[in-house]
Design a protein that fits this description.
heterodimer; A: alpha/beta; 2 domains; 9 strands; B: mainly alpha; MetI-like fold
Chain lengths: 219, 262
């Protein structure tokens, strides 16, 4: 399974449930940025299924003829501002991020979390000067968790995944983005039935319940 | 032997041929002269040269200490100083944050007393690169010092030269090939450094986004641009490595009989 890194915890837990229900099938993961995963699949990496953190990256895979069938949406995710526990800088809105004294870290515009952050900042008409453009959403989370950065824009699920090390500030739906997570069996899959069974399991009630625990919303 | 050596050559050459094969030659010039590429290349050269200079400044004395001064626990000290060679670079970068970050062991005092912050600065990139590159210089220079006949140094000392004068006029010339080889290794490692840099210093065009970081980001959306940037990095490194070899390790130059074979 090649999966966007924001799904790391949720999919790992779902896989445990899946393999205990289907002992004959083993599930292993390659978690990375969606775009990097598509590049790997295009270059012949042995993936049975792919799940992307946005529709655009999935469209790249489909366009390259590497997808078998239509992708299905398995979850959605919104974005939030991630800050240190207790929100010491009193950040309450997207507009607060424009403060030049704040150390703000965003994802690079080439990865889904960066595209989402750019859309939100444009929607809210806010200009931010980031200190760093991270290559993955985990990079942003780590910088805030370790106290190097005061704030960042990440997926709501990443805030939940950070546990006690960071808290989230809600971004209102009027400026927020909704990200779909499409999943598909790859054209080169050597176990297409098993891959499809796993996708069905993720999209089914058990998978959805576990995705919900990690802050994902229904597709 | 020859067959195995040829396999090794092929093993190193094939990935390069692969890059050349996939390179978008028609649009290469556009990617090359792109402002972003030039900024990243300039930053990479600047930071890697600084990292090499710092590695020499601190690494040569460290190598001297390890090779020439016997003390209890020198084995532990050596292992400690080589640790960053085997540590996954991202882990090294996070460890640097724990030490020198805004909330780090030492970093919090740098921040409080001197208003000095390394993460997200070009200096931070140099620190990260030095951290992973210096052991390559230390290991090379230490090996050379160990193989150097210490009677030359002893002779110099008994003739009244100071320790520093002896080091400068006797030791340093004798280990010069090893010093240069070590510096080149450290420079190459710094130039290609990715993990520690992004973990410790972040990635921002012009301040912390070096070539490897720019290449990795380009790979996400524009693999063609990534290939062109990678080839530029390879060409620069190749030119330096070949140039240095002819100039310093060509074997034409006469070296003292005690000098270490490279």
């Amino acid at each position: 399974m090649f999966a966007a890194s924001s799904l790391t915890e949720a999919l790992t837990q779902i896989a445990v449930a899946f393999t205990s229900a289907n002992p004959a099938v083993g599930v292993s993961f390659n978690f990375a940025g969606s775009g990097e995963l598509v590049t790997q699949i295009e270059q012949g990496a042995p993936a049975d299924a792919f799940v992307s953190a946005d529709d655009t990256t999935m469209a790249r895979l489909v366009g390259a003829g590497e997808a078998a069938g239509e992708p299905v949406s398995i979850a959605t995710n919104t974005m939030a501002i991630i800050v240190e526990p207790g929100n010491p800088k009193r950040i309450t809105s997207v507009a607060d991020l424009a403060d030049p004294d704040l150390i703000v870290v965003l994802c690079a515009a080439t990865v889904p979390c960066g595209k989402g952050a750019a859309t939100i900042l444009a929607n809210a008409a806010v200009e931010v000067t980031p200190s760093s453009l991270e290559d993955s959403v985990k990079g942003v989370v780590t910088k805030v968790e370790l106290g190097e950065a005061d704030a960042g824009i990440v997926f709501a699920t990443d805030v939940k995944g950070a546990g006690d090390d960071a808290v989230g500030v809600v971004i209102p739906a009027s400026v927020n983005v909704i990200n779909h997570y499409p999943m598909v069996v790859t054209a080169a899959s050597r176990n297409p039935e098993a891959a499809q069974a796993f996708i069905d399991f993720v999209a089914g009630p058990a998978g959805q319940a576990m995705l919900g625990q990690y802050g994902f919303l229904a597709p | 032997m020859l067959a195995l050596a040829c396999i090794a050559i092929g093993f190193f050459a094939l990935p390069l041929v692969g890059l050349l094969w996939r390179a978008p030659w028609s649009s290469a010039w556009g990617y090359l002269t792109d402002d972003g590429s030039l900024t990243a290349l300039r930053l990479s050269m600047l930071c890697s040269l600084w990292a090499t200079a710092l590695s020499i400044t601190f690494g040569v004395p460290l190598a001297w200490l390890l090779a020439r001064v016997p003390f209890r626990g020198s084995g532990v000290v050596r292992a400690l100083c080589m640790l960053s060679m085997v540590l996954p670079p991202v882990v090294g970068g996070v460890a640097l944050l724990f030490a020198l970050g805004r909330r780090g062991l030492v970093g919090q005092w740098l921040d409080r007393w001197f208003d000095l912050r390394l993460p997200f600065t070009t200096a931070g990139v140099v620190v990260a690169q030095t951290f992973v590159a210096m052991p390559f210089l230390v290991i090379t220079v230490e090996a050379a010092l160990r193989q150097l006949d210490s009677r030359f140094e002893d002779a110099s000392r008994t003739l009244g030269a100071s320790r520093w004068y002896t080091f400068r006029r006797v030791t340093l010339p004798a280990i010069r090939p090893a010093l240069i080889a070590g510096a080149v290794l450290a420079w190459a490692r710094a130039l290609g450094e990715f993990g520690a840099t992004i973990a410790f210093a972040g990635s921002f065009p012009g301040t912390t986004q070096t070539m490897p970081l720019a290449i990795y980001l380009a790979l996400e959306t524009n693999p063609e641009q990534a290939i062109v940037l990678a080839l530029v990095l390879i060409a620069v490194s190749f030119a330096v490595l070949i140039g240095l070899r002819d100039r310093w390790f060509g074997g034409r130059q006469s070296t003292p009989p005690t000098a270490v074979p490279r």
